[in-house]
Amino acid sequence: MTEGVLLAIFAGLMLGLYALPEKFTKDFKYENTWSLFFLLTMFVVPIIASITLIKGFGDIFGNMPTDIWIKMGLTSFLWGVGVMMWSKAINHIGLSLGFSLFIGTIILVGSVLPFIEDGLPPTNKLTIILIGLLVVLVGIFANGKAGFIREKVEKNSEENTAKKGSMTTGILIAVVGGLLATGFSYANAAGRPYLHQASQAAGNAEWITAVAVMFPIFISGGIVMTAYFLWQLNSKKAWGDFKTPAFGKNFVLILVMAFFHYAASALFAFAAYKLGASGNTVGYAIFNTSCVATAIVSGIITKEWINASKKARNFLYLGLSCMIIGIVLVAYSNGIE
Question: Can you say how many angstroms the Cα of residue 289 is from the centroid of all Cα atoms in its chain?
């Protein structure tokens, strides 16, 4: 159990920090960076990793039952749609509130969704899991409140007026996007049993199952993500910004981002396996909570909150504390017989 918990925490740490190299790119617009990122992380890295690492790659996926392909493909595609909706939500309600609502929905629904495939755990274990998730959610929304207070102070009155008019729309988009993004959790739960058995039969190591699971998830989810940003490149007329002397450096930095993003997701899948019967639920909660906590701590370290009010910082610290307590409860639940 301990190994699975630590792997899930480390996966969340990687996901919370994967975008850090983006700060060092030059001459790229937002659309340039993220279109290239999604192309690499959703297609290039998974395809190369899967073909290179998985023994019997063709047989494993060629013999995968149609119903599993449909379950994984459809829910992964919905995951991609959800991520795109989140990017739209922050235009209406800001990054902090949008992030909190989106991740809060993912943790609440995505952690429970695998029960459809895995079945409910014993009542005593389920009770602790749900209490832990509730505490995590309190922390998520406390963080959202902290971010909302901070943004309200930082934005000028004109911008605030514009935001208020679309607040309801932004909240709706963030919540619906979070619901769709839980497709990642379901796809992992639906595909892992067959892929683990087939991977083991082909003579692969246990951890290779995580690579196999990520292949259909990333390819299906990547269709909508990549298509969206290609459309953005056209609408923003940003294709020309790829022609820069800094392209080589930017490419390497974005490739590092893509690798860490993919590796974090694959590591979560392996952690879920190591956590046993309730691994999809417990691992998903720990994974996402660790990701948010990492992002918050990195923001504190880089002094993003240095000018925030005392009230905003107090909500931030309350949220972080609740998330840590919640993740400990969820991890503890996995050790209950």
Answer: 10
* Cα Dmax for the chain: 63
Q: Does position 204 have pLDDT exceeding 90, yes or no?
A: yes
Q: Per-residue pLDDT averaged across 124-133, rounded?
A: 86
154 has a pLDDT exceeding 90: no
* Nearest in space to 298 (alpha carbons), one of 7, 18, 48, 89: 18
Measured in residues, the chain has a length of 337
Helical spans, DSSP H, in 165-207: 167-181, 183-201
- Return phi, psi of residue 58, to 5°: -65, -45
Examine the pLDDT at 24 and tell me if it is beyond 70: yes
According to the model, what pLDDT value does residue 71 have? Answer: 95
Is it the case that residue 79 has pLDDT exceeding 70? yes
pLDDT at residue number 40: 94
Cα–Cα distances in Å, from 136 out to 33, 54, 57, 79?
A: 32, 36, 38, 22
pLDDT of residue 20: 81
Q: Give CA separation, 256 vs 18, 249, 250, 261, in Å.
A: 8, 11, 10, 9
pLDDT at 254 over 80: yes
Nearest to 139 by CA among 288, 327, 322: 322
Alpha helices in the chain (DSSP H): 2-17, 30-39, 45-53, 57-62, 66-93, 95-112, 115-118, 123-154, 157-164, 167-181, 183-201, 208-235, 247-274, 279-301, 310-333
Nearest to 76 by CA among 216, 192, 212: 216
Give which of 147, 154, 104, 85 is closest to 289, Cα–Cα. Answer: 104
